[in-house]
């Protein structure tokens, strides 16, 4: 049965419609990144980096030539590292409790964790500010930023680690126990290494959330300047090209780190035989399971 | 005995942190919302007028915020679903790479992304001119209008929509769809009758995770919007940081939270709540 | 399944945890309060005096607006005095900076800063709250000698006891000569021909008085009704889409990218903007402009006030001030700068934006006074327009 060209074309379109739309969406997603990258090579004459003037590698060569920008970046990095460390440890502990143990108040704890994720940032930032202003013990600045960042990261860490724990094959732990290890040793030598990719993923998410946070930081920073806050201030007066450069650097580093993390995750998964049906979606891309292919 | 307190010990630090730095600040904000006076001499006097004034003075902004957030959520859903579908069912080996490509753009700073949109949507940019020629931008400018804010919101919250939908699509047993096809349904029917309902939890989660933060956002309105496009988040921010009118700002924040809660409860009742709180260990 | 004994133990544990949390919470609630934003009321304090301690040394932290100084002055000062300067450009808005500093200033601290540069009206507010120190005039000889006549005795600080002007400026209109050649007045900004391509300032003490001038009202004689009428006019323009947006410095962004063709803008920005687009120029509106000054002040709790005063003195030397004026292009408060620049760059010396003649600014008004209840009402009304 020969089909007309038109019908064939229509059929091809229908079959690939979803893929075409998907491709268009990916282009849409990458558009701003392309713009940011493009303008990092711009050579504006005045203060404003909004119209294309000419190509130059100067700003890449001297990306760290602005002391205030560097200071803001360093502050952001310090803050993110500390907040990640604290929230990952605390959040992992919480996830372990929620998944592995039955106890009174588990529903309440679950609720407590979900609520911050569901609160608009402007409300969280404002509430924290009200708190700090009224009790007056903490002076607005690095300490209050750290407190705020840890607070909003905890929920995300719990969700990611929890989803990893749910699909975890307990038989390995049982085997260790059978071979004479006590609970502590089992945890240290079997469980922890196997959930490490999940913990690492959660840590990465916390880091990304902290370094990118603007709204909550804006309310609680006092006079301390983080990288996003620097950009906000500079947006009034003209954002230097170096900001684009640094944003691209941060982007590349994060992408590389994520790639590394995903690769590690895959390796760990092969060792831990995670059951695909029980996985919940974390905020991170999860490798597709071998079985479903 | 040790076994019994282990969960509390594990849960302790996190819970304390969240209670002290999330729950209690909300209490303090509630306290502030009932005070009146000038900074430096605020008094607690059950000043409920803050709430009524907040609602009456800023009702336009509330409506506008919910409209923008709703539109953005809907657009995000329409854009994300095909993409999530493609990644879940058609990507095969490229699945991880695609997910990566989808999430990666959001590793640039939020502000810079939004400002990049300022450049893309500016009056004289090729994109705006193209949209103008095909009739989507009658007045010739997109920036500093409502649609620009909606576009920004849609973009910035896309991953929160894509990932949950992808997750629930990925879990669907392909055999169910095959079974439907075996029973003589067309591809379209199989989608509507089988795939879509099975992906409902993902859709519900995604819409909530998008709508809630979008309703309170102010960055998009500030950079991409013009006069008359301000959202309630902008008002709260200006009351806190520019005017230092803390009682009104606090009252406004609570009204926003309450309205969002109401919208969410209604939505969940309507859509059915599933997989919102997460699974627990068996 | 669980024995009642175990249940009891578990409940006890839960109760213990809850009690611990509650105690912690109450403990936190109890402390603080007096140093926060609540309290009985602000008492008028005696303004503390700066005590000079010999030659300046140590380090100095200054908070200023961005792009308000040339690149050479700080190193020159460091070299001349040996004082290490930490110059931070963290002031983007008078209100926001005040709100950030207020909790500290109320406690008598300045966050490590020794000098702020803020608009006249804001320093008046701070002075009233007792947040500023009074100078030891013996350490400000250069200021005494070189301050221009017109700024020697402002109404709010007749002897210049706690303020020293940093720069002055004019708020008028900046237009794209090519796209909006016929905009010469504030009233022209309301011309529907430029609908959606006009930016207004978001500063209530600048945008509203300018519109009052368009209506023929003198801002310094305006009644509350005049303020409200002007705000209504602005509101109408915002709602009709005439005004694209309300901006701070970011009007420059719209001008450079072509999104706006005529804006309310500051005189010092003109030269910078021309580097991006030679078609942009600052114009004195036919109704006149707004004149303002920003002042250096020393806050309470400032570390090293000796070095702070030395800085103020230093920047009032005409040679140093000439460098600053050349870069920022605002109106300099120091005598003798014109002559120095005339030798270096005659074009700058003749520039009306930096050395405005009396006739150039004859229709201009100073920042009007807004206080108390009138201030509250006006700000609330204007903010309602800003927030759409």
Key attributes of the depicted protein:
heterotrimer, B: 282 residues, mainly alpha, 14 helices, 2 strands, C: 388 residues, alpha/beta, D-Maltodextrin-Binding Protein, domain 2, ten-stranded mixed beta sheet
Notes on the protein architecture:
The complex is a heterotrimer of chains A (293), B (282) and C (388). Chain A has helices at 5-39, 58-61, 67-100, 106-118, 121-135, 142-166, 171-178, 183-212, 215-220, 227-237, 241-272. Chain A is mainly α and 293 residues long. Chain A has eleven helices and no strands. Chain A is globular and about 70 Å long. Chain B has a two-stranded antiparallel ribbon with strand order 1-2. Chain B has 14 helices and two strands; from the N terminus they run αββααααααααααααα. With 282 residues, chain B is mainly alpha-helical. In chain B, a hairpin with a 6-residue loop joins β1 and β2 (43-44). In chain B, α2 crosses α14, α9 packs antiparallel against α10 (187-198) and α11 runs antiparallel to α14. In chain C, α6 crosses α7 and α11 (318-328) crosses α12. In chain C, strands 1, 2, 3, 4, 5, 6, 7, 8, 9 and 10 form a ten-stranded mixed beta sheet that branches. Chain C is globular. Chain C contains 14 helices and ten strands. At the A-B interface, α1, α3, α4, α5 and α6 of A face α1, α3, α4, α5 and α8 of B.
> pLDDT under 50 segments of chain C (min length 5)?
27-35, 40-44
**Rg from alpha-carbon coordinates of chain B:** 23 Å
Query: Could you state the CATH homologous superfamily of chain B?
Result: MetI-like
Structural class, from secondary structure content of chain B? mainly alpha
Proportion of residues in β-strands of chain C: 5-15%
Can you lay out the helices and strands and say which pair or pack?
The complex is a heterotrimer of chains A (293), B (282) and C (388).
Chain A: H1 5-39, H2 58-61, H3 67-100, H4 106-118, H5 121-135, H6 142-166, H7 171-178, H8 183-212, H9 215-220, H10 227-237, H11 241-272
Chain B: H1 2-33, E1 35-36, E2 43-44, H2 49-57, H3 59-90, H4 95-103, H5 110-120, H6 126-133, H7 146-156, H8 158-170, H9 174-182, H10 187-198, H11 200-215, H12 219-224, H13 232-242, H14 246-271
Helix pairs in contact in B: 1-14, 2-14, 3-7, 3-8, 3-11, 8-11, 9-10, 11-14, 13-14
Chain C: H1 4-30, E1 59-63, H2 73-81, E2 84-88, H3 94-106, E3 115-119, H4 120-128, H5 141-146, E4 164-176, E5 198-201, H6 204-214, H7 224-240, E6 243-247, H8 251-257, E7 262-266, H9 269-276, E8 280-283, E9 290-297, H10 305-315, H11 318-328, H12 337-344, H13 346-350, E10 365-366, H14 372-386
Parallel strand pairs in C: 1-2, 1-3, 5-6, 5-7, 9-10
Antiparallel strand pairs in C: 3-9, 4-7, 4-8, 4-9
Helix pairs in contact in C: 6-7, 7-14, 11-12
């Amino acid at each position: 049965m020969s089909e007309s060209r038109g019908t064939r074309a229509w059929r091809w379109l229908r079959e690939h419609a979803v893929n075409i739309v998907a491709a268009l969406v990916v282009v849409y997603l990458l558009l701003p990144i392309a713009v940011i990258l493009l303008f990092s090579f711009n050579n504006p004459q005045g203060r404003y980096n909004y119209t294309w003037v000419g190509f130059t590698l100067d700003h890449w060569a001297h990306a760290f030539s602005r002391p205030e920008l560097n200071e803001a970046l360093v502050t952001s990095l310090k803050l993110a590292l500390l907040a990640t460390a604290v929230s990952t440890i605390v959040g992992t502990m919480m996830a372990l409790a929620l998944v592995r143990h039955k106890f009174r108040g588990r529903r309440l704890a679950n609720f407590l964790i979900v609520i911050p994720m569901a609160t608009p940032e402007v409300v969280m930032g404002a509430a924290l500010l009200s708190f700090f202003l009224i009790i007056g013990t903490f002076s607005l600045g690095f300490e209050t930023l750290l407190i705020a960042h840890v607070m909003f990261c905890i929920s995300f860490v719990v969700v990611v680690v929890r989803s990893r724990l749910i699909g975890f094959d307990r038989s390995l732990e049982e085997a260790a126990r059978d071979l004479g290890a006590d609970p502590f040793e089992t945890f240290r030598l079997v469980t922890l290494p196997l959930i490490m990719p999940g913990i690492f993923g959660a840590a990465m998410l916390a880091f990304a959330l902290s370094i990118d946070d603007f709204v909550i930081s804006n309310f609680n920073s006092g006079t301390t300047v983080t990288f996003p806050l620097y950009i906000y201030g500079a947006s009034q007066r003209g954002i230097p090209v170096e900001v684009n450069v640094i944003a691209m650097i941060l982007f590349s580093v994060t992408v590389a780190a994520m790639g590394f993390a995903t690769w590690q995750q895959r390796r760990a998964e092969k060792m831990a035989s995670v059951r695909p049906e029980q996985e919940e979606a974390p905020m991170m891309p999860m490798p597709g399971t071998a079985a479903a292919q | 005995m040790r076994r019994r307190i282990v969960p509390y010990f594990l849960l302790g630090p996190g819970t304390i942190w969240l209670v002290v730095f999330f729950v209690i600040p909300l209490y303090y904000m509630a306290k502030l919302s009932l005070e009146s006076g000038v900074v430096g001499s605020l008094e607690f006097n059950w000043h409920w007028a803050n709430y009524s004034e907040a609602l009456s003075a800023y009702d336009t902004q509330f409506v506008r915020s919910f409209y923008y957030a709703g539109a953005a959520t809907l657009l995000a859903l329409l854009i994300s679903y095909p993409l999530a579908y493609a990644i879940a069912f058609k990507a095969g080996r490229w699945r991880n790479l695609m997910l990566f490509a989808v999430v990666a753009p959001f590793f640039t700073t939020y502000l810079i992304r939004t400002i990049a949109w300022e450049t893309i949507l500016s009056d004289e940019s090729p994109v705006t001119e193209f949209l103008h020629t095909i009739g989507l931008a009658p007045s010739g400018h997109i920036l500093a209008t409502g649609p620009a804010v909606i576009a920004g919101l849609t973009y910035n919250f896309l991953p929160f929509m894509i990932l949950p939908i992808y997750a629930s699509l990925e879990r669907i047993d392909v055999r169910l769809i095959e079974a439907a096809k075996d029973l003589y349904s067309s591809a379209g029917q199989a989608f509507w009758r089988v795939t879509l309902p099975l992906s409902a939890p993902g859709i519900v989660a995604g819409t909530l995770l998008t709508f809630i933060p979008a309703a309170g956002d102010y960055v998009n309105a500030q950079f991409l919007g013009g006069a008359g496009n301000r959202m309630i988040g902008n008002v709260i921010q200006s009351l806190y940081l520019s005017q230092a009118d803390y009682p009104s700002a606090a009252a406004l924040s609570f009204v926003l939270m309450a309205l969002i809660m109401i919208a969410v409860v209604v939505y969940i009742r309507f859509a059915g709540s599933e997989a919102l709180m997460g699974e627990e260990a068996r | 399944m669980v024995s009642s004994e175990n249940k009891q133990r578990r409940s006890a544990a839960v109760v213990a945890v809850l009690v611990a949390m509650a105690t912690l919470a109450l403990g936190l609630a109890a402390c603080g309060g007096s140093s926060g934003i609540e309290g009985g009321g602000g008492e008028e304090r005696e303004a503390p005096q700066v005590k000079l301690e010999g030659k300046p040394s140590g380090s100095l932290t200054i908070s200023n607006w961005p792009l308000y100084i040339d690149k050479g002055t700080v190193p020159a000062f460091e070299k001349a005095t040996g004082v290490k300067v930490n110059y931070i450009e963290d002031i983007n808005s008078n209100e926001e900076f005040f709100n950030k500093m207020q909790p500290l200033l109320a406690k008598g601290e300045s966050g490590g800063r020794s000098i702020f540069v803020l608009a006249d009206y804001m320093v008046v507010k701070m002075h009233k709250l007792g947040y500023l120190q009074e100078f030891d005039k013996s350490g400000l000889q250069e200021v005494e000698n070189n301050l221009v006549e017109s700024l020697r005795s402002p109404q709010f600080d007749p002897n210049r006891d706690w303020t020293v002007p940093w720069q002055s400026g004019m708020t008028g209109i900046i237009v794209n000569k090519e796209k909006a050649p016929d905009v010469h007045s504030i009233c022209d900004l309301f011309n529907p021909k430029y609908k959606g391509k006009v930016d207004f300032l978001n500063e209530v003490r600048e945008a509203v008085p300018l519109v009052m001038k368009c209506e023929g009202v003198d801002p310094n004689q305006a009644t509350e009704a005049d303020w409200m009428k002007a705000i209504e006019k602005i509101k109408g323009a915002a709602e009709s889409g005439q005004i694209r947006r309300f901006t701070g410095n970011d009007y420059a962004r719209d001008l450079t990218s072509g999104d706006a063709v005529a804006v309310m803008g500051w005189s010092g920005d003109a030269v910078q903007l021309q580097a991006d687009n030679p078609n942009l120029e600052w114009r004195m509106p036919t109704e006149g402009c707004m004149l303002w000054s920003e002042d250096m002040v020393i806050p309470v709790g400032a570390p090293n006030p000796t070095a702070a005063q030395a800085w103020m003195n230093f920047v009032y030397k005409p040679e140093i001030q000439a460098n600053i004026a050349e870069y920022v292009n605002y109106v300099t408060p120091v005598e003798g700068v014109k002559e120095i620049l005339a030798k270096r760059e005659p074009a700058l010396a003749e520039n009306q934006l930096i050395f405005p003649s009396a006739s150039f600014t004859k229709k201009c008004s100073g920042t009007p006074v807004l206080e108390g209840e009138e201030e509250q009402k006006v700000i609330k009304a204007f903010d309602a327009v800003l927030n759409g």
